[in-house]
Design a protein that fits this description.
It is built from 3 helices and 11 strands. It is an alpha+beta fold.
């Protein structure tokens, strides 16, 4: 990561913008396609739950119900990347998805869960909420769009004690 000016100096808007662009580009570059086996491990530090949206931006299901996501338990030490990959590689019946858009097959006769997330859904990382539960940060390489649950997400940067630019977690 590029070193920023010492914390005592005021960083310029241009320096902050450059750091934000660089860290955003890195997050997108390391995002892995959910339909491919993940190359790195992300073991869960403790038992928790992972929220898995059923459609792009948590799209509203047919009939207007509230089941926009599935929630799965993750054990301590279990690889979160493998849990996410396995879940989205499962086949899903056409009747369960209703009016959601399948971005891969128009007829949707044999569809996998990831086909409803966008044309090229990639896992860009994870967000831990106040309860310690995991939410997937998605990056779609085709749409050039980043989203999580039912909203778009963006990165923010701050300077750490050493004056380096780091991603600000909320």
């Amino acid at each position: 990561m590029p070193a920023a000016p010492p914390a005592s100096q005021k960083a310029t808007d241009a320096e902050r913008a450059a750091a934000l662009k660089m860290l955003s580009d890195v997050a997108r570059a390391f995002a892995w396609p959910v339909h491919r086996w993940p190359l790195d491990r992300r073991p869960a530090e403790h038992a928790t739950r992972v929220h898995l949206p059923r459609a792009y931006l948590g799209g509203a299901p047919a009939g207007g119900g509230c089941d926009r996501e599935d929630v799965r338990a993750v054990r301590a030490g279990q690889d979160v990347n493998q849990v996410v990959h396995a879940w989205y590689m499962e086949y899903v019946e056409r009747e369960r998805v209703g009016v959601w858009t399948n971005y891969v097959h128009e007829d949707g006769t044999i569809a996998r869960r990831h086909e409803y997330l966008g044309p090229d859904p990639r896992v860009a990382g994870y967000f831990f909420d106040v309860d310690g539960e995991i939410h997937v940060r998605w990056w779609d390489g085709f749409l050039k769009n980043q989203w999580m649950d039912d909203q778009k997400w963006t990165l923010d940067v701050v300077q750490n004690a050493k004056g380096e630019w780091v991603v600000k977690e909320y």
